[in-house]
Amino acid sequence: MTVRRTVNAAMQALIDGTFGCLDAAAETINARLGGTVSKGTLSKRLSGQLGWPVEEVMALEDAAGRHPVTRMLARRLDTRERTAAASLVEASGEASKEAGEAICAALRAAQSADAGELATAIQEAAEGEQALRRLREALEAVR
C-alpha cells in the first residue's frame, strides 16, 4: 500500500470515528487554522486526488486526541517502536498459549478429585496471569 493510501485510510477512519462526516471535519480544520476548507476538498483528499497538508492532518488529529498519521510517520524513525511491535506479537502468542493451558488445566481439575490436578491448574493460571501482564506491558510500550 502506498503512503498516500495509508494516510488516506487513517484519515478516513479518524474522520468517521471522531467527526462523523466531512462537514464536521472541514469545520474543525477551518476553526483551528482559519482557512476555508470544504467538504469537497476533503473528499478529494480522501479519494487520493489531492494530498493532505501537514497542518490539516495535525488539526484533525489534535481535535480528535488521536494521532494515527503522526504515529505512522514516527515509526519510520523509531527502531524502538518496531521492537515494541515485535514484542507485542511475541507477547500475544505467549499469552494465548498460557491462557489456553490454564483453561485446559482448570477443566481437567474440575472433572477430577485429584488435589494434584488442582495444584497444576493453579500453577497454570498463575503462568497465564504473568503472560497477560507481559502482554499488557508490551501494549503500553507501543503508546
TrEMBL record:
Taxonomic superkingdom: Bacteria
The protein depicted here goes by the name: Uncharacterized protein
From what organism does this protein derive?
Salipiger marinus
- Source organism lineage? Bacteria, Pseudomonadati, Pseudomonadota, Alphaproteobacteria, Rhodobacterales
